[in-house]
Structure formats: C-alpha cells, structure tokens
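lol ok so funny story. i was supposed to be doing the assay writeup but got distracted and ended up predicting the structure for this chain instead. priorities right. anyway since i did it might as well share w the group, maybe its usefull for someone
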Amino acid sequence: MGEGAVNPTAAFVRVEAYGWSRQTGSGNAVAFGPDRLLTACHVLAGAESIRVIRDGKVWQTQLVEAVPSADLCLLDRPQDLETQPILMMDPPADGPLSAVTFWPDRPGPSLARGEVSGLATVRDQSLILTDIPMLPGMSGGGVFNAQGALVGIAVGRWHAPVFGIAVGLAPLRHRQPMTDPAALSPLPDFLDEQKTWAEMLLVGLARSFDTAATRSGVFDGWHVSRQQGGCFATLRDAEQADLGVTLEVYAGNPVQKSPPRVHLAVEQQGVPFALASQPLSFTVLPSLHAFSLRPARLLQGREGVAENLWSVRWELDDATDFLRALPGVDGVILSSGSRDLGALPVSSPGLWSGLRQTCL
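and the output, tada:
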C-alpha cells in the first residue's frame, strides 16, 4: 500500500462467531469511526455470541447496526480495544488494490495484492470485482486502493466467472439498528451463484471482450473454410473450453442478388438427456435477440451411459437474421430448458469479415 496507509495492526481485528457451543463463522473486522467495527454480515449469521481477537487478547462484542442487503454489519468496539481511524473513499474504476486479513494460525496481518477487474451492479448492489483471490476466512477484511484508503469490504468470490468480490462503503449511509445475528443470511443474494449466475455471466463476458479486444486478430478463434459449395466458420473458444461448446455458421452459395442462406449449429458434449432433448435458446449480446435451435442429433458414447450424458447438436436452418445482426454481436449465451449451459465471447468483426471475405 502507498504512503499514508493505515497500520493494519491498529485498524483490524479477527472476528469469531459462536452458537450452540461451536464456531459458526470467522472473518475480519475494520475500525469504523470511533466506536464501531465493520465486518461482513454472513460471518455473524446465526451467532449467539461474537468475539474479536488481536494479539492473542479476546473481547466480547455485539451486533449494533447493519445493511443486510449489502452484507455489511457494524459491531460495538470494546472500550479497551484501541483502534486507528481509516480514510475511506469511493472505489476506483481501475488500478491496484490490496486486501488485508488476519488468519488465526499466522502472526500479524497478511496482504494480498491485485487489480480492479471492474465494477458491477448485481441485485441492486454495487460491487468491486478484483483478481485478488478472496479465500474463505477473508470476509470482513478491508480492501484498499494504492493510497491506502479503504474502498471496500471483502465478502467472497464467484467461481464462474472467477472474481474476488468486495462491497463498496456507500450502503453504510443507510445502516439501521440491528442486534439479532439470527436474522442475518449466511449467503446474501448477490453471492448466491444459482440466483445471479446469468447476471455475472454478462459481467464476465464484458470483461473478456475488453481484454480480448487488445489481443485479437481479425480471425482470432475462428476457422473459416469452403467445403462442398458452401462456407463454414467454426469457433472453439479456448477461454470457455470447459463448456465443450462449438459454434458453427454455414453460409451456402448465395443466389445472385439474393441474401445467402445461413445455417447455425451448436454442439456440446456431456449434456444430460433432459436438457439434450430440449430446444436450445441462443441469445446474442448486446441486442438480446434470441434464436431457438432444435435438437438435431444426439449421440451417446460408452463413457456417457452410466450418467446418461449425451453429445448434442442443435441446428437452425435459416439464420439470415443472425447474419444481419452479426456486425453488432459481442457474444452468445446458451440455455436449454431453464438451465444456462454457458457463454461464448464472439469476435463479431472477425466472424463477419471471415464470412464476407471468404464466403460471400
């Protein structure tokens, strides 16, 4: 951290929550004003007693205020626990960040460094996304900018896409009295990946577009070739390889002065039969124009029999609307039934140029 940074040993404490004679949560807390300690609410959820620890000394404390929707809770500062005020600022749009945490089995504070990956609003909460790996036990720790000012509180991480998550401090303006940790959620909505995966997928795609734009060539990721009187363009995106998705665009020989007939196909491996037998929704970004593809082929290898997993090919025979929209397409989200299957960032200038120059 930069010049003027606070002394972590005077600004932070370790937090432990207990209920029914067992530990229910642990994390960190940051000095907030003269008589409060700021932490992540999910650390305290269901607690019957709360204690804070520094340099081997233990104090009992209690919940006094909270903004549960933002996962921000304030504890009473014990009278003989000395803390140092911290300069607080709005989160930066980019630049370096540091996260400070205390681990119960290590002496002194630990410092993790990273960058701002972006700012996002998920479930009405403004969040700081970072490449700092937010590990279990870091919740409630402070996140600082390069000047040492507190800009957020570490609350957790997403796994797909992978982001460390911190909450900015603005919601603290709306804090309300609260004394019952049993009323707190162990998992706020914006950290529930089942509820917010689609929203975070959009954020993750946007970030991949930003980074890919600086390194992509015109045909990056796309293989374009002529075959049997038509033209194929296929995408197997390395960043999304774990999805096992291949996107294929086929443009047949156009009739003179007529638009070409365009065929779309999507293939994926390891799909449960209940999803493989459903139409595929293919939503392009940023227009949110949706196409429905029919399941055209299901194959099951020997290794997929036990779990009833299939290799599926979905097809759309006339995708001229997709071709018209292609110059403005940034990516696609795939879903079957009520389940999202994944997403692919699409270099639309590359695909458009490849089809136009090689095929049309």
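The mean pLDDT is 79. The longest helix spans residues 193-213.
back to the writeup now i swear
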